[in-house]
Specification:
The protein has one helix spanning 186-189, and strands spanning 4-9, 23-28, 38-41, 52-54, 60-63, 71-80, 83-94, 97-105, 111-129, 135-150, 162-173, 180-185, 217-222, 228-232, 237-241, 248-252, 260-261, 270-277, 281-288, 303-310, 315-322, 338-341, 347-350, 356-360, 366-373, 385-387. The chain is mainly beta. It is globular, with a radius of gyration of 20 Å.
Protein backbone atom coordinates (compact mmCIF):
# COMPACT_ATOMS: atom_id res chain seq x y z
CA UNK A 1 0.00 0.00 0.00
CA UNK A 2 1.41 3.38 -1.01
CA UNK A 3 1.02 6.05 1.64
CA UNK A 4 1.85 9.67 0.94
CA UNK A 5 1.60 12.36 3.58
CA UNK A 6 1.92 16.10 3.23
CA UNK A 7 1.08 19.14 5.30
CA UNK A 8 -0.19 22.20 3.46
CA UNK A 9 -0.92 25.58 5.00
CA UNK A 10 -4.21 27.17 4.02
CA UNK A 11 -2.66 30.25 2.48
CA UNK A 12 -3.88 30.49 -1.14
CA UNK A 13 -7.02 32.35 -0.15
CA UNK A 14 -9.38 34.57 -2.09
CA UNK A 15 -10.58 36.22 1.12
CA UNK A 16 -8.31 36.55 4.16
CA UNK A 17 -10.05 36.24 7.51
CA UNK A 18 -7.35 35.02 9.90
CA UNK A 19 -3.68 35.78 10.51
CA UNK A 20 -2.87 32.16 11.36
CA UNK A 21 -3.86 29.65 8.65
CA UNK A 22 -5.74 26.42 9.04
CA UNK A 23 -3.61 23.44 8.10
CA UNK A 24 -4.47 20.11 6.52
CA UNK A 25 -2.48 16.93 6.91
CA UNK A 26 -3.33 14.72 3.95
CA UNK A 27 -2.68 10.97 3.75
CA UNK A 28 -3.40 9.22 0.45
CA UNK A 29 -3.55 5.44 0.75
CA UNK A 30 -4.67 4.59 -2.80
CA UNK A 31 -4.71 7.56 -5.17
CA UNK A 32 -6.25 5.60 -8.06
CA UNK A 33 -9.33 4.79 -5.96
CA UNK A 34 -10.01 8.35 -4.75
CA UNK A 35 -12.97 10.07 -6.41
CA UNK A 36 -12.06 13.49 -7.93
CA UNK A 37 -13.54 16.54 -6.25
CA UNK A 38 -13.05 19.22 -3.63
CA UNK A 39 -13.53 19.16 0.14
CA UNK A 40 -16.03 21.58 1.71
CA UNK A 41 -15.55 22.35 5.41
CA UNK A 42 -16.95 24.91 7.84
CA UNK A 43 -14.86 25.01 11.05
CA UNK A 44 -17.13 26.57 13.66
CA UNK A 45 -14.62 28.24 15.96
CA UNK A 46 -14.78 32.04 15.78
CA UNK A 47 -12.77 33.93 14.45
CA UNK A 48 -11.88 31.04 12.13
CA UNK A 49 -15.47 30.05 11.46
CA UNK A 50 -16.43 30.11 7.85
CA UNK A 51 -16.63 28.25 4.55
CA UNK A 52 -13.48 26.67 3.15
CA UNK A 53 -12.80 24.64 0.01
CA UNK A 54 -9.68 22.46 -0.27
CA UNK A 55 -8.34 20.43 -3.15
CA UNK A 56 -7.27 16.85 -2.50
CA UNK A 57 -3.65 17.91 -1.91
CA UNK A 58 -4.81 20.00 1.03
CA UNK A 59 -4.38 23.36 -0.69
CA UNK A 60 -7.02 25.96 0.14
CA UNK A 61 -8.74 27.13 -3.04
CA UNK A 62 -11.38 29.27 -1.32
CA UNK A 63 -11.96 30.84 2.06
CA UNK A 64 -15.03 32.99 2.48
CA UNK A 65 -15.64 33.83 6.14
CA UNK A 66 -15.78 37.55 5.34
CA UNK A 67 -18.76 36.85 3.08
CA UNK A 68 -20.97 35.36 5.81
CA UNK A 69 -21.69 36.33 9.41
CA UNK A 70 -21.41 34.49 12.70
CA UNK A 71 -20.95 30.74 12.84
CA UNK A 72 -21.23 28.85 9.55
CA UNK A 73 -22.51 25.28 9.12
CA UNK A 74 -23.52 22.96 6.27
CA UNK A 75 -21.37 24.67 3.62
CA UNK A 76 -21.81 22.60 0.45
CA UNK A 77 -22.28 22.70 -3.31
CA UNK A 78 -25.95 22.61 -4.23
CA UNK A 79 -28.33 22.98 -7.16
CA UNK A 80 -30.97 25.71 -7.13
CA UNK A 81 -33.22 26.52 -10.08
CA UNK A 82 -31.16 24.10 -12.19
CA UNK A 83 -27.89 25.99 -11.59
CA UNK A 84 -24.85 25.00 -9.56
CA UNK A 85 -24.78 27.14 -6.40
CA UNK A 86 -23.39 27.15 -2.87
CA UNK A 87 -25.51 26.56 0.22
CA UNK A 88 -24.70 27.37 3.85
CA UNK A 89 -26.23 28.23 7.22
CA UNK A 90 -25.12 31.32 9.16
CA UNK A 91 -26.07 32.48 12.64
CA UNK A 92 -25.37 32.01 16.34
CA UNK A 93 -25.24 28.79 18.34
CA UNK A 94 -25.62 27.93 22.03
CA UNK A 95 -26.48 24.82 24.07
CA UNK A 96 -26.38 22.58 21.02
CA UNK A 97 -28.63 24.40 18.56
CA UNK A 98 -28.71 27.57 16.53
CA UNK A 99 -30.63 30.64 15.48
CA UNK A 100 -29.97 31.99 12.02
CA UNK A 101 -30.70 31.59 8.32
CA UNK A 102 -29.97 29.18 5.54
CA UNK A 103 -28.68 31.00 2.45
CA UNK A 104 -28.04 30.22 -1.21
CA UNK A 105 -25.07 31.91 -2.88
CA UNK A 106 -24.23 32.47 -6.55
CA UNK A 107 -20.94 31.97 -8.41
CA UNK A 108 -19.68 35.31 -7.03
CA UNK A 109 -20.46 34.06 -3.51
CA UNK A 110 -23.21 36.62 -3.09
CA UNK A 111 -26.39 35.71 -1.23
CA UNK A 112 -29.20 35.38 -3.76
CA UNK A 113 -31.74 33.79 -1.39
CA UNK A 114 -32.25 33.79 2.38
CA UNK A 115 -34.71 31.24 3.72
CA UNK A 116 -36.92 31.53 6.83
CA UNK A 117 -35.22 31.56 10.24
CA UNK A 118 -33.91 28.12 11.15
CA UNK A 119 -31.53 26.00 13.18
CA UNK A 120 -28.30 24.63 11.65
CA UNK A 121 -28.84 20.88 11.95
CA UNK A 122 -30.32 20.47 8.48
CA UNK A 123 -30.25 22.39 5.23
CA UNK A 124 -30.75 20.50 2.00
CA UNK A 125 -32.25 21.50 -1.33
CA UNK A 126 -33.79 18.59 -3.22
CA UNK A 127 -34.96 18.62 -6.83
CA UNK A 128 -38.05 16.86 -8.13
CA UNK A 129 -40.02 16.52 -11.37
CA UNK A 130 -43.73 15.79 -10.99
CA UNK A 131 -46.02 13.67 -13.16
CA UNK A 132 -46.65 16.65 -15.43
CA UNK A 133 -42.93 17.20 -15.93
CA UNK A 134 -42.79 20.32 -13.78
CA UNK A 135 -39.45 20.97 -12.05
CA UNK A 136 -39.32 22.18 -8.44
CA UNK A 137 -36.86 22.70 -5.59
CA UNK A 138 -37.69 21.95 -1.95
CA UNK A 139 -35.57 23.03 1.01
CA UNK A 140 -35.50 21.01 4.23
CA UNK A 141 -34.79 22.91 7.44
CA UNK A 142 -34.82 22.32 11.18
CA UNK A 143 -36.21 24.75 13.77
CA UNK A 144 -35.64 24.49 17.55
CA UNK A 145 -38.28 26.30 19.62
CA UNK A 146 -38.20 26.47 23.48
CA UNK A 147 -41.73 26.12 24.92
CA UNK A 148 -43.29 25.77 28.40
CA UNK A 149 -44.19 22.29 29.66
CA UNK A 150 -44.82 20.55 32.95
CA UNK A 151 -41.46 18.86 33.61
CA UNK A 152 -42.00 18.05 37.26
CA UNK A 153 -41.83 14.31 36.44
CA UNK A 154 -38.26 14.93 35.30
CA UNK A 155 -37.16 16.87 38.38
CA UNK A 156 -37.68 20.39 37.04
CA UNK A 157 -39.70 22.41 39.57
CA UNK A 158 -40.55 25.85 38.31
CA UNK A 159 -43.28 28.45 38.48
CA UNK A 160 -46.59 26.58 38.20
CA UNK A 161 -44.52 23.43 37.61
CA UNK A 162 -43.85 24.68 34.11
CA UNK A 163 -40.32 24.13 32.87
CA UNK A 164 -38.85 24.73 29.42
CA UNK A 165 -38.31 22.11 26.72
CA UNK A 166 -37.18 22.38 23.10
CA UNK A 167 -39.78 21.50 20.49
CA UNK A 168 -37.84 20.31 17.42
CA UNK A 169 -39.48 20.99 14.06
CA UNK A 170 -38.53 20.06 10.56
CA UNK A 171 -40.00 21.96 7.67
CA UNK A 172 -40.24 21.49 3.93
CA UNK A 173 -40.07 24.95 2.36
CA UNK A 174 -40.53 26.28 -1.17
CA UNK A 175 -37.26 28.24 -1.50
CA UNK A 176 -38.69 30.57 -4.12
CA UNK A 177 -41.68 31.80 -2.11
CA UNK A 178 -40.47 30.74 1.39
CA UNK A 179 -43.85 29.06 1.83
CA UNK A 180 -43.83 26.23 4.40
CA UNK A 181 -45.13 23.09 2.65
CA UNK A 182 -44.87 20.67 5.58
CA UNK A 183 -44.20 21.24 9.29
CA UNK A 184 -43.59 18.50 11.89
CA UNK A 185 -43.22 18.90 15.66
CA UNK A 186 -41.43 16.46 17.97
CA UNK A 187 -43.64 17.32 20.97
CA UNK A 188 -46.76 16.51 18.96
CA UNK A 189 -45.55 12.96 18.29
CA UNK A 190 -42.69 11.83 20.56
CA UNK A 191 -43.10 11.59 24.36
CA UNK A 192 -40.44 13.07 26.62
CA UNK A 193 -39.84 9.62 28.11
CA UNK A 194 -38.11 8.41 24.92
CA UNK A 195 -35.10 10.63 25.64
CA UNK A 196 -31.83 9.26 27.01
CA UNK A 197 -30.72 12.79 27.92
CA UNK A 198 -32.33 14.13 31.09
CA UNK A 199 -32.46 17.82 32.07
CA UNK A 200 -28.93 18.72 33.11
CA UNK A 201 -26.36 21.53 33.02
CA UNK A 202 -26.96 24.02 30.25
CA UNK A 203 -30.16 22.21 29.22
CA UNK A 204 -31.66 21.85 32.73
CA UNK A 205 -35.13 23.07 31.70
CA UNK A 206 -35.27 25.90 34.24
CA UNK A 207 -35.40 28.77 31.74
CA UNK A 208 -35.98 29.51 28.10
CA UNK A 209 -32.24 29.88 27.58
CA UNK A 210 -31.53 26.49 29.21
CA UNK A 211 -34.52 24.62 27.76
CA UNK A 212 -34.25 20.84 27.91
CA UNK A 213 -33.27 19.52 24.47
CA UNK A 214 -34.95 16.13 24.87
CA UNK A 215 -35.06 15.22 21.16
CA UNK A 216 -32.25 16.92 19.23
CA UNK A 217 -33.31 16.53 15.61
CA UNK A 218 -30.20 16.38 13.40
CA UNK A 219 -31.18 15.23 9.88
CA UNK A 220 -34.14 14.98 7.50
CA UNK A 221 -34.40 12.83 4.37
CA UNK A 222 -37.31 12.46 1.96
CA UNK A 223 -38.37 9.01 0.77
CA UNK A 224 -39.59 8.45 -2.78
CA UNK A 225 -43.15 7.77 -1.66
CA UNK A 226 -43.44 11.08 0.18
CA UNK A 227 -42.61 10.00 3.73
CA UNK A 228 -39.62 11.28 5.69
CA UNK A 229 -36.79 9.75 7.68
CA UNK A 230 -35.52 11.84 10.57
CA UNK A 231 -32.74 11.28 13.09
CA UNK A 232 -33.01 12.11 16.80
CA UNK A 233 -29.68 12.12 18.61
CA UNK A 234 -31.06 12.27 22.15
CA UNK A 235 -33.46 9.34 21.66
CA UNK A 236 -30.91 7.41 19.52
CA UNK A 237 -33.76 6.70 17.13
CA UNK A 238 -34.48 6.95 13.41
CA UNK A 239 -38.17 7.71 12.74
CA UNK A 240 -40.21 7.20 9.59
CA UNK A 241 -42.73 10.04 9.38
CA UNK A 242 -45.89 10.00 7.28
CA UNK A 243 -45.78 12.75 4.66
CA UNK A 244 -49.58 12.96 4.86
CA UNK A 245 -50.31 13.54 8.55
CA UNK A 246 -46.94 13.52 10.35
CA UNK A 247 -47.65 10.34 12.29
CA UNK A 248 -44.78 7.98 13.14
CA UNK A 249 -44.88 4.90 10.90
CA UNK A 250 -41.99 3.14 12.67
CA UNK A 251 -38.95 3.57 14.89
CA UNK A 252 -35.48 2.12 14.35
CA UNK A 253 -33.30 2.01 17.48
CA UNK A 254 -33.92 3.68 20.81
CA UNK A 255 -36.24 2.58 23.62
CA UNK A 256 -39.18 1.56 21.41
CA UNK A 257 -37.63 0.11 18.25
CA UNK A 258 -39.96 -1.68 15.84
CA UNK A 259 -36.99 -3.56 14.39
CA UNK A 260 -34.44 -6.08 15.62
CA UNK A 261 -30.90 -4.87 15.00
CA UNK A 262 -29.22 -8.15 14.07
CA UNK A 263 -25.49 -7.57 14.23
CA UNK A 264 -24.89 -3.94 15.13
CA UNK A 265 -26.08 -1.02 17.20
CA UNK A 266 -25.91 2.76 16.99
CA UNK A 267 -26.06 5.53 19.55
CA UNK A 268 -26.40 9.34 19.44
CA UNK A 269 -26.19 9.21 15.63
CA UNK A 270 -26.09 11.96 13.02
CA UNK A 271 -26.84 12.41 9.31
CA UNK A 272 -29.15 9.55 8.33
CA UNK A 273 -29.41 9.38 4.51
CA UNK A 274 -31.28 7.16 2.06
CA UNK A 275 -29.04 5.36 -0.45
CA UNK A 276 -31.68 3.21 -2.14
CA UNK A 277 -35.08 1.63 -1.54
CA UNK A 278 -37.33 -1.19 -2.73
CA UNK A 279 -40.83 -2.20 -1.68
CA UNK A 280 -39.51 -3.93 1.46
CA UNK A 281 -36.01 -2.59 2.07
CA UNK A 282 -34.19 0.65 2.71
CA UNK A 283 -30.44 1.07 2.45
CA UNK A 284 -29.29 3.88 4.73
CA UNK A 285 -26.07 5.54 5.80
CA UNK A 286 -25.51 7.18 9.17
CA UNK A 287 -22.72 8.53 11.33
CA UNK A 288 -22.69 6.51 14.53
CA UNK A 289 -21.19 8.73 17.22
CA UNK A 290 -21.48 6.23 20.08
CA UNK A 291 -20.92 9.27 22.28
CA UNK A 292 -23.07 12.07 23.61
CA UNK A 293 -21.38 14.73 25.73
CA UNK A 294 -24.53 14.92 27.89
CA UNK A 295 -24.29 11.17 28.61
CA UNK A 296 -20.89 10.02 29.88
CA UNK A 297 -18.76 8.06 29.11
CA UNK A 298 -18.51 7.11 25.39
CA UNK A 299 -20.17 3.79 24.59
CA UNK A 300 -17.66 2.93 21.87
CA UNK A 301 -15.78 4.29 18.86
CA UNK A 302 -17.45 6.46 16.25
CA UNK A 303 -17.84 5.14 12.70
CA UNK A 304 -19.76 5.53 9.50
CA UNK A 305 -22.27 2.79 8.82
CA UNK A 306 -24.31 1.53 5.88
CA UNK A 307 -27.30 -0.56 6.95
CA UNK A 308 -30.22 -2.37 5.37
CA UNK A 309 -33.68 -2.06 6.93
CA UNK A 310 -36.19 -4.76 6.01
CA UNK A 311 -39.71 -3.52 6.67
CA UNK A 312 -41.26 -6.93 5.95
CA UNK A 313 -39.20 -8.93 8.46
CA UNK A 314 -38.75 -5.99 10.85
CA UNK A 315 -35.00 -6.52 10.95
CA UNK A 316 -31.97 -4.32 10.25
CA UNK A 317 -28.47 -5.50 9.43
CA UNK A 318 -25.06 -3.92 8.96
CA UNK A 319 -23.80 -3.87 5.36
CA UNK A 320 -20.54 -1.96 5.82
CA UNK A 321 -18.72 -0.08 8.57
CA UNK A 322 -16.27 2.73 7.90
CA UNK A 323 -13.67 3.16 10.64
CA UNK A 324 -11.35 6.03 11.47
CA UNK A 325 -7.60 5.64 10.78
CA UNK A 326 -7.11 6.68 14.41
CA UNK A 327 -9.42 4.00 15.83
CA UNK A 328 -6.51 2.23 17.56
CA UNK A 329 -6.04 5.19 19.90
CA UNK A 330 -9.79 5.83 20.34
CA UNK A 331 -11.72 8.41 18.39
CA UNK A 332 -15.13 9.10 19.90
CA UNK A 333 -16.71 12.07 18.15
CA UNK A 334 -19.00 13.80 20.63
CA UNK A 335 -20.53 16.23 18.16
CA UNK A 336 -21.45 16.21 14.48
CA UNK A 337 -20.47 13.83 11.72
CA UNK A 338 -21.66 13.06 8.19
CA UNK A 339 -21.65 10.28 5.59
CA UNK A 340 -21.87 10.96 1.85
CA UNK A 341 -22.02 8.33 -0.90
CA UNK A 342 -19.92 9.35 -3.91
CA UNK A 343 -19.46 8.08 -7.45
CA UNK A 344 -18.28 4.47 -7.81
CA UNK A 345 -19.89 3.79 -4.44
CA UNK A 346 -17.12 5.43 -2.47
CA UNK A 347 -18.08 6.88 0.91
CA UNK A 348 -16.86 10.25 2.21
CA UNK A 349 -17.04 10.83 5.97
CA UNK A 350 -16.81 13.98 8.05
CA UNK A 351 -15.91 13.07 11.63
CA UNK A 352 -17.43 16.09 13.41
CA UNK A 353 -15.48 16.99 16.54
CA UNK A 354 -12.83 14.40 15.65
CA UNK A 355 -11.48 16.92 13.15
CA UNK A 356 -10.83 14.90 10.02
CA UNK A 357 -12.37 13.61 6.81
CA UNK A 358 -11.88 10.20 5.21
CA UNK A 359 -12.81 8.45 1.99
CA UNK A 360 -13.43 4.72 1.70
CA UNK A 361 -14.32 2.30 -1.06
CA UNK A 362 -17.81 0.86 -0.88
CA UNK A 363 -16.59 -2.20 1.01
CA UNK A 364 -14.86 -0.09 3.66
CA UNK A 365 -11.23 0.14 2.50
CA UNK A 366 -9.62 3.46 3.50
CA UNK A 367 -8.16 5.33 0.50
CA UNK A 368 -7.83 8.93 1.72
CA UNK A 369 -7.70 10.91 4.96
CA UNK A 370 -7.18 14.57 5.85
CA UNK A 371 -6.94 15.92 9.37
CA UNK A 372 -7.37 19.65 9.92
CA UNK A 373 -6.95 21.98 12.85
CA UNK A 374 -7.75 25.53 13.86
CA UNK A 375 -5.05 27.09 16.06
CA UNK A 376 -6.05 26.68 19.70
CA UNK A 377 -9.11 24.60 18.84
CA UNK A 378 -10.18 21.22 17.54
CA UNK A 379 -11.52 22.80 14.35
CA UNK A 380 -14.83 20.94 14.54
CA UNK A 381 -16.78 21.01 11.25
CA UNK A 382 -20.33 19.82 11.91
CA UNK A 383 -20.51 18.23 8.47
CA UNK A 384 -18.08 17.82 5.59
CA UNK A 385 -18.88 17.43 1.90
CA UNK A 386 -17.09 16.47 -1.29
CA UNK A 387 -18.19 17.90 -4.62
CA UNK A 388 -17.43 20.09 -7.63
CA UNK A 389 -15.83 23.53 -7.40
CA UNK A 390 -15.40 25.72 -10.47
CA UNK A 391 -14.09 28.74 -8.62
CA UNK A 392 -15.53 32.07 -7.59
CA UNK A 393 -16.30 34.43 -10.49
CA UNK A 394 -15.04 37.97 -10.01
Amino acid sequence: MLLTTLVVAACHCLTAVAQVPITLEVSTYDKSSVVPGFIYLAPNTIPFSGPYVFDLNGTTVFKGAAKLSGTVHDFQPCVYQKKQRFCAWQGTTAFGYGSGQAVILDDQFKVIKALPASDYHEFKIVQAIDAQGQYSDTAYLTVYTPVRRDLSAFGVPNEDDQGWVVDCHFRAVDPVSNKVIFDWSSLDHVPLSESYVLPTGGINGYSQRSAWDYFHLDSVARLSGGDYLISSRHTSTIYRISGKDGSITWRLGGKSSDFKLQDFSFDSQHDVRVVSSTADTLTLTLFDNEYNTFVQPPKGLSSGKMIEVNTATKTARLLHQYDSPSKDIGNPSGDGGSVQVLAKGNVFIGWGSDAQVTEHTADGRLVYAARFAVPGSSGNSYRAFKGPFTGIQK
